[in-house]
Design goal:
76% of the residues lie in helices and 0% in strands. The protein is built from 25 helices and no strands. The N and C termini lie far apart (136 Å). Belongs to the SEC10 family. InterPro entries: Sec10-like, Sec10_HB, Sec10_N.
Length: 716
């Protein structure tokens, strides 16, 4: 094994020793311990150690040699650097000397240039003046022009330069004499050159020759017709540019393409682009708007067209502003596009709100009129107030005496409220609010929105909802009816609340955002609250009348159907009925009314109305029962009657207070059948504990055996 293995990578000492031992001892020594000879292995290790030492000495001598060579090379390198530094210093000194020499020569050259220019400029001016005087001389004679520069059509650019200068000279010539003819001829030639240049410009634009167009615009900058050149450019750019049905879709691409050409042709391309946009707005767009808005016979169509056109124009201004940033051109100041838009729509926007209100009134009037005609109803003047109420009460009293009360018109249950009508009105108003937010100026936005809101209030709230509620109130039967009352007011309340909720939703969604930041916001909230309170007051009045009519009919049933003999039959052998006739009629009637109330009303209104009706029903029932005297059989019958009333209240009204009242009334009725000895105990029960002792005492006195059984002494 050689020491060259030390130079192999990677090198492992452990593997090197293992290989040395394996090669020295062989495979048999590893398998057979008896053949293992440590002396041979020791000798091999000693030999390898000597070889490694020799190798180490050899490597060390090589390292020393390389170190010496490296030091010698480093010394030679530093010597070369020192020499280069000396040469660099010498070159830097030479460069400074040369720079000073160049500066000196440059100063001399500039001085000589100034001297030459001072001599050459007057000479050039003199040559130019001589040339112009020569051309002017031709205009002073009566002979035709002969100079090629003035007559050769192929030298039009030189002609333009000369004529422009001669035109300025002609302006300084004295008036009168032979100069007038020259001035006139120069002016004619000036106009002819202008026309030819503009013609060449048009041809160049049609051919797409930007270089030719640029040369002509540079010449025409000094002519009076430079603006005319821009007009020709704008006109030519628009030819064939409008390819879509709507001109609004073509304007931005037209401006982007024209801007590229304008930058290549004109030095003042932003001015050209501003004039192009102004021409488009005051020409194409204004003509399109005028044609669309020319027919104003139908205000709704007119307003929709105005809104659509204004939206499209506003969107166009936004896209143009965006294009200005993306394609690096400028259109006037920051208000340039807004002023153009305002100039197009000014005459329409100034009278917008008048047309809007007129259109809304006409549409709402037509909608309501069509609805009432469909119902075969003629709107009438509603009489309200204290005088009308007094008149109605007097008629009711007279009717009680004459048995012919005032005529109550309920229109067969028609509520005269329509969701379709309300939705149509609200949809038109929503569109009006949307138009108002776009077409009104910021200063007029809130006031215009309030005007639209007041129209909505007038026709929807007052002339439809409020009118229907008033009709519903007048159709409520009197408080002392002689016939079973038909009460349709609950349907009116249900539909009126539904329509008013739709009104409130639009108030919040469409109207309030328009006045939120104005000083009118508080007024608008107050106005809506007053409308709600006014309607609720009328509904409360109508509900109270309806409950009075219901209670009045129950009172009438009790008065006409309930006999004293019902609760004090003369014979105990008389047939026993489960309910008295009066109780059967009352329960049937009350069941129908409670069902109608629950079907028509919702939310808290149901609980409030049923609670009020239930309390009055309980008071009437209690007062009615205290008018009779009860024997044992009659007491059983009245308990059955009250149980029927209680069942209705508990299962259908579902108002805890009313249920408790009828539970107490039922408990009072039980006192009519309790044996005298137990009355004291029963009257102290849980259901009667909350009642005053006088109430219990008065009710017990209704027993037929109150005196004979000495019940009063038992209650002490």
């Amino acid at each position: 094994m050689s020491v060259e293995e030390l130079e192999q990578e990677p090198f492992s000492v452990h593997e090197f020793v293992e290989r040395l031992a394996w090669k020295t001892m062989g495979a048999t020594a590893r398998n057979t311990p008896e053949e293992f000879d440590p002396v041979i292995l020791h000798t091999a290790f000693e030999k390898m150690i000597r070889d490694l030492k020799d190798k180490n000495n050899q490597v060390q001598r090589k390292i020393d040699k390389l170190t010496t060579e490296c030091k010698d090379e480093e010394k030679r390198h530093w010597n070369r650097i020192a020499e280069l530094q000396k040469k660099n210093q010498s070159l830097y000194t030479g460069f400074q000397t040369l720079d000073e020499r160049i500066s000196y020569v440059a100063t001399k050259v500039v001085y000589l240039g100034d001297q030459l220019e001072g001599v050459n400029t007057p000479r050039a001016r003199a040559v130019e003046a001589q040339r112009l005087m020569h051309y002017l001389g031709e205009f002073l004679t009566d002979e035709p022009l002969t100079s090629p520069v003035l007559v050769d059509p192929f030298q039009l650019h030189l002609t333009a330069d000369v004529i422009q200068k001669l035109h300025l000279i002609a302006l300084e010539l004295p008036v009168g004499g032979r100069f007038d003819i020259a001035r006139q001829k120069i002016a004619e030639k000036y106009d002819a050159v202008e026309r030819e240049l503009i013609g060449e410009f048009r041809l160049g634009q049609q051919a797409g020759d930007k270089r030719q167009m640029r040369k002509i615009t540079n010449l025409l900058q000094h002519f009076k017709s430079y603006g005319q050149c821009i007009d020709v450019f704008i006109t030519e750019c628009q030819k064939g540019a409008f390819k879509h049905n709507s001109i609004f879709d073509d304007i931005v691409p037209l401006c982007v393409e024209t801007n590229k050409l304008a930058k290549a042709v004109f030095s003042n391309s932003d001015t050209v682009m501003s004039k192009l946009v102004q021409n488009l707005f005051q020409g194409s767009i204004q003509g399109h708007v005028a044609s669309r808005l020319e027919n104003q016979s139908d205000p709704e169509v007119y307003l929709n067209n105005l809104y659509d056109l204004h939206i499209r124009t506003t969107k166009l201004t936004f896209e143009l502003s965006k294009a200005c940033v993306e394609h690096e051109f400028k259109l006037g100041d920051s208000t340039f596009l807004n002023k153009l838009t305002r100039s197009i729509f000014a005459q329409h926007l100034d009278r917008y709100i008048e047309v809007e209100l007129q259109s809304l009134r006409a549409q709402f009037t037509m909608v309501l009129q069509h609805y009432y005609e469909k119902k075969d109803h003629v709107k009438r003047q509603i009489q309200t107030g204290g005088i009308y109420e007094l008149k109605r009460d007097i008629q009711a009293r007279i009717g009680t005496v004459t048995k012919a009360g005032p005529t109550i018109e309920n229109f067969g249950g028609e509520t005269f409220l329509s969701q379709e009508v309300a939705i149509n009105i609200l949809q038109d108003t929503r569109n009006a609010f949307k138009r108002c937010s776009t077409l009104s100026s910021q200063s007029d936005l809130a006031s215009n929105a309030i005007k639209i809101f007041e129209v909505l209030v007038q026709y929807l709230v007052l002339e439809h909802i409020d009118y229907a509620v008033e009709l519903g109130i007048q159709g409520i039967p009197l408080a002392e009816p002689k016939f079973e009352p038909e009460i349709f007011f609950f349907d009116v309340v249900s539909q009126a609340n539904t329509l008013f909720h739709l009104f409130e939703k639009q108030f919040t969604d469409s109207f309030i955002p328009l006045v939120m930041s104005s000083q009118h916001h508080g007024f608008c909230m107050k106005r809506k609250r007053e409308l709600r309170e006014a309607m609720e007051a009328k509904i409360d009045n109508g509900l109270d009348r309806s409950i009075n009519a219901i209670i009045g009919w129950v009172r009438y049933i009790f008065a006409t159907e309930q006999k004293k003999a019902d609760f004090r039959p003369e014979s105990e052998d008389a047939p026993m009925h489960l309910l008295s006739p009066a109780a059967a009629k009352v329960s049937k009637f009350m069941h129908s009314q409670v069902k109608e109330i629950k079907n028509s009303l919702d939310g808290k209104n149901v609980d409030i109305v049923l609670g009020t009706l239930g309390q009055r029903y309980h008071r009437l029932t209690y007062e009615h029962l205290t008018q009779f005297t009860y024997n044992s059989i009659g007491a059983m019958l009245v308990i059955c009657d009250v149980n029927e009333y209680r069942k209705l209240v508990k299962e259908e009204m579902c108002v805890p207070l009313v249920t408790q009242l009828f539970e107490s009334l039922h408990a009072l009725c039980n006192l009519l059948v309790v044996v005298p000895e137990n009355i004291k105990v029963v009257s102290s029960g849980e259901q009667l504990a909350t009642l005053d002792d006088s109430v219990i005492q008065n009710f017990v006195q209704l027993r037929a055996d109150y005196r004979t059984a000495r019940i009063s002494t038992r209650l002490r």
